[in-house]
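Feature request, filed as a ticket because there's no other form

It would be nice if the structure record came with a short human-readable summary line next to the tokens. Right now we just get the raw output. Example of a typical job, pasted below so the devs can see what we mean:
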Amino acid sequence: MNLHTTHDDVRHYYGDVLQSTRDLRTGACCPAEAMPPALRTLLEDVHPEVKDRFYGCGSPLPPALEGRTVLDLGCGTGRDVYLLSRLVGESGSVIGVDMTPEQLQVATRHQDWHARRYGHAQSNVRFVEGYIERLAACGIADASVDVVVSNCVLNLSPEKEQVFAEIFRVLKPGGELYFSDVFADRRIPDALRTDPVLLGECLAGALYIEDFRRMLERLGYADARGVSQSPIPLLDPQIEARIGMVGFRSMTMRAFRLPLEDRCEDYGQMATYRGSIAGLPHAFVLDDHHRFETGNPMRVCGNTFDMLAQSRFAAHFDLLGDKRVHFGLFDCGTGPTTAAASAGACC
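Raw output as currently delivered:
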């Protein structure tokens, strides 16, 4: 796939063809799940023009971000950047990277408006025009970011492995990638992967979920976890006729920059959520099969333990155990049976 041709097609589609969400022809680049109530309240304070040109497929805004540095890849007009601006607070910062000037023009002209709206002495966000495959050229240093988010953008890249390599380069040890994107139940035929409309609608570049798992393993990052997922309706009869044999899903995933094992191993460890994350007094959801109820100890595998103990979530858990004694594979019980499970979420 030609890098420059693909970028040009995507830039044209998002800069010229799409003028608002009403121009979308499928449900791929539309939110597939309801935004949590707390975020919906914050959304009311985002400028209408920014919201009107939003083309994401999920709500990849994790909790516990106060004071953190967050990077939004493919930020577009900045809707998620401005939501994150509130979540990180004045002591945190948000960087939005996008290659489409028309989108960034909308984002930047409302920057001061949002700072005043939020009561910030100065804006805590900045926007960079550049390629998500080339974050070094965007001035993003090694191990400088706490959390990377992306909303229905990574599928658009013709160099996906390079994108994920860059993500893990800029993440701090224990940092998190938390993103929503379109995944496919099979590999997209080569003849369709360069179609400008299918590409712009986030279908032609959708990753086969098993290839995503294999790619992260090659990069040295095992056990990506599925958080949520929803089927994507194609809606347009012409698009259905061309690519309707593929099943598409919007999936929210998380992965940590940690040396995790490729299987869930049992070390007799326990984790108890303290209920201390803002907005989550009763429970914390790590993924689609780990819901930690406040005060209720839960047996966890070694990978889950490390995700909690070596990340920003450590301050919100009582963690018991180490890895001196190994008890074999962790008993996963019923576990997840969805496609998210095959992305490495195995306990």
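Something like this underneath would help us a lot:
Residues 3-17 form the longest helix (15 residues).
Residues 334-346 have pLDDT under 50 and may be disordered.
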